[in-house]
Amino acid sequence: MKNAWRFFLIGECLLFVFALWQLVHNIPLVILFFLGVGSIFIVTKKENEKKRTLQVIGAIFIVIALVNNFAIWLMLLFAILFIGIKGVEISGVQLFQKNWLKKKKIMMVETIEPTAHASEKIKKTWIGDSRIGSEIFEWNDIVLSIVAGDTIIDLGNTLLPKKENTIVIRKLFGKTRILVPAGIGIKLQQNSFLGTVTFEDEAIQLKNEELIIYSTDYDDSQRKLHILSTNCVGEIEVIRV
């Protein structure tokens, strides 16, 4: 229980720092925020008929500045998810047999030759185990949106088309591992607030930075893989198999 709440507090603190960083880099919101704080602070020292009106206006300014900050919404979403799950655990309802933060999403991708394209609708999951690749299918670009957890994408049995293929990963927290066969040129484009990139035996730390890196055989390869990954806190590792 203590470890879970410690994780929650650390996550909220990191998101709060992110919120401050976004605020100070948006001058109109900074001005609006301090106008609101100043209005409330000034009128508390005065006694007049307009005191309550100025307090309301100041509070509105502060609320507008905060709701236009994306990190504030992330803090609220993280708090709602965490408190909701802890509430389920305390109530004794077995919603998950294991902690969802420790579950890994494994994708074993195996493909066939392209055929005529048809429309399809695929259900995506944010939390829990799932596996792609129990059946052989035609290669399609992969797009993943995950709240938290570890993700493994295995392209070991994949024959990619002779073009630039794409994998898009959007995640708040967790580790991502991508297994890529030899002979495929790789371009990795990673955005992280706080994270680590491991690529061709090189570990690179990111602190609110974007990294674009290429494999040594990228220009000469007929089959290419473009990985676009965005996360708040976590690690991405690209491994040759």
From TrEMBL:
The keyword Phosphoprotein does not apply. The chain crosses the membrane at residues 5-21, 27-44, 56-85. Residues 2-86 form the DUF7649 domain. Residues 126-238 form the Cell wall-active antibiotics response LiaF-like C-terminal domain. It holds the Pfam family LiaF-like_C. Keywords: Membrane, Transmembrane, Transmembrane helix. NCBIfam families: LiaF_C_term. This is Cell wall-active antibiotics response protein LiaF. It comes from Enterococcus camelliae. The gene is liaF.
